[in-house]
Structures are given as structure tokens and as C-alpha cells.
Amino acid sequence: MPAHVLVLGGTTEARELAAALAAHPGVRVTSSLAGRVSRPGALAGRVRIGGFGGADGMAAWIRDHHVTAVVDATHPFARSVTRNAAEATRATGIPLVVLRRPGWQPGPGDRWHLVASQTAAAGLLPELGRRVFLTTGRLGLAAYAHLTDLHFVLRSVEPPQPPMPPRLTALLARGPFTVPEETALLREHRIDVLVTKDSGGTATAAKLTAARHLGLPVVVVRRPPLPDGVSAVPDVPSALALLDLPAQ
Ligand code: NAP
């Protein structure tokens, strides 16, 4: 039976990994998506969509579909699915590779405020400005709903839903974004402060450069920790190497 790799996806790296795995003749690849985005785009190999029903459900899926290895290439802030993958691979005795793009690092001139949660980010905002560019996604919006005096410009892939702050302009867009685009956006909306998760990667990093050029403060929400005993590799070639599959 050929190897069957389950890639837990929803990221650019997961898409690249699925393509690299699909190029290996002896490997079957299934990408799994949560189903949050209505038009996820084409992926190499098979695709399944929707939750597994927790760690037990994922373990059952692994057994039923003869999965031989799991790569968790989910977003650094997708905490539950990562915990479930650790439990499910332990229970089924197959290898788990966690692929996480490295986080962003502040450079000279950056005015970063590192916080542990979106609640903490919301707590800082009133002292940093009145017009906020929020790039933390539509799902964490409730943390800012009580800030009725501030104006938020939210950028997200899907439209936001309540609870959310009353003064909010929603911009629906998907990266990558360039520094000139981000600079123009910050100027056009007269932004005082930017809020971001430490997602890492290049597709959405331009806003940090634009904020630096304009001297704006940035509230950066730190990543949640990986489960105990789990470590991550930073890129697709390292993930392939751990699976014993050289890049082709
Ligand atoms: P989460 O809190 O870890 O996941 C919540 C539940 O959604 C999981 O328990 C699981 O349901 C299901 N799920 C999540 N990822 C899945 C996947 N790849 N395949 C099948 N089921 C999945 O994650 P989240 O923050 O809601 O993110 C959901 C997805 O969006 C992830 O795949 C992630 O890569 C992507 N994403 C997240 C962010 C972010 O900022 N959080 C940003 C960009 C993309 P069951 O327990 O029922 O299995």
C-alpha cells in the first residue's frame, strides 16, 4: 500500500507541501480544510473539508483511511487542531510533523507592543490611538466589541459578524499585499495603530514595513505555545526531509 499523508491545511505552506507530496509517485496526499473559507482554491491531491469531531474523530479517520503520517501545516494560531493532531497521532502510533512558518521579528524603528491575547491587545488600544487597522481576522472581533469610541478598519477574507465594535469599516481582501498598497491604506484610513497576530510569512508582512515607515505603533499578538513534547519545522523542505521524502 502506498504512503498516505494527511496534511492539515489552511495555509500557503500546506498548499505547497500538498503539491510537493503529490509529485512523489509512491505517496497519496489528502489535504484537510476546516471549511472556514468559501472558495479555498485548488489543491494538489485529494481534499476533505470540515472538522473530524475532535482528536478521537481524527484518530478514527486516520485508521479508516490508512494514513501513514500526518503533517500539521495549519496556521500558527489554530490551536485546537494542533492539539488534536498530537493526540490522534499518539493514539494511532503514526508520525506527526508540525510545519510552522517562523514568526516575525521587530527591526530598527519598529514600535511593537507584544501581547498574549486579543483581549490584551484590546486593553492597550485606547492609549495608542483612535483609528485602528485590525488584521487579526474576523473571528476574534468580539474582544474589541466594547471599544465603542474607537474606529476600526477590519481586513478579512470573509465578511465579519457580530459581536463586533460598532464603528467598523470592513475591507474584504486576501493577501499578498505590497508595501505601497499597505502604506496607501494606512494613510487613506488615517490609521493610528495596527493590530496583528504574529502569523509570520511574507504574504502579509508588508503592513509591518508600512507601519514602520509611517512611525505607527503595532500591537502584535504572540503565538500560542505548541502542545507539550511537540516541536515544529520551519519550511516545506524540512517537513519532506522528516517524512523521508526528498524534494523533487
Ligand atoms: P482551531 O481553533 O484549531 O480549530 C477549531 C476546529 O476546527 C478544530 O477543532 C477542528 O474541528 C476544525 N479544524 C481546524 N482546522 C482544520 C483542518 N485543517 N481540517 C479539519 N478540521 C479543522 O483552528 P482555527 O483557528 O479555527 O482555524 C481553522 C483553519 O483555518 C485552520 O485549518 C487554519 O489553518 C486556518 N487558518 C486559521 C487562521 C487563524 O488565525 N486562526 C488564519 C488563517 C488560516 P474538529 O475538532 O471537529 O476536528
Mind explaining what this structure looks like?
The chain is of the alpha/beta class and 248 residues long. It folds into two domains: 4-101 and 226-242, 3-Layer(aba) Sandwich (Rossmann fold), CATH 3.40.50; 111-221, 3-Layer(aba) Sandwich (Rossmann fold), CATH 3.40.50. 28% of the residues lie in helices and 23% in strands. The chain has seven helices and twelve strands. The chain has helices at 12-22, 54-64, 79-92, 118-124, 179-188, 206-214, 236-242; strands spanning 3-8, 27-33, 46-49, 69-72, 96-99, 111-115, 131-134, 151-156, 168-172, 193-197, 217-221, 232-233. The strands form two sheets. It has a six-stranded parallel sheet, sandwiched between helices. A six-stranded parallel sheet has the order 6-11-10-7-8-9. The radius of gyration is 19 Å and the shape is elongated. The mean pLDDT is 96. The structure holds NADP nicotinamide-adenine-dinucleotide phosphate. The site of NADP nicotinamide-adenine-dinucleotide phosphate has 24 residues, from strand 2, helix 2 and helix 3. NADP nicotinamide-adenine-dinucleotide phosphate binds next to strand 2, helix 2 and helix 3. It comes from Streptomyces thermoviolaceus subsp. thermoviolaceus.
Overall domain count: 2
Looking at CATH, which topology of the largest domain would you report?
A: Rossmann fold
Give start-end ranges of low-pLDDT stretches: none
First-to-last CA distance: 21 Å
Instruction: Kindly estimate the percentage of residues that lie in beta strands according to DSSP.
Output: 15-25%
The CATH architecture of the largest domain is: 3-Layer(aba) Sandwich
Q: Report the C-alpha radius of gyration, rounded.
A: 19 Å
Helix content estimate: 25-40%
- Overall mean pLDDT stands at 96
- The SSE order reads EHEEHEHEEHEEEHEHEEH
Supply the CATH class of the largest domain: Alpha Beta
Discrete helix count: 7
Structural class: alpha/beta
Largest sheet: 6 strands, parallel
Count all strands and give the number: 12
What small-molecule ligands were found?
A: NADP nicotinamide-adenine-dinucleotide phosphate
- Spatially, the strands of the biggest sheet line up as 3-2-1-4-5-12
Morphology: elongated
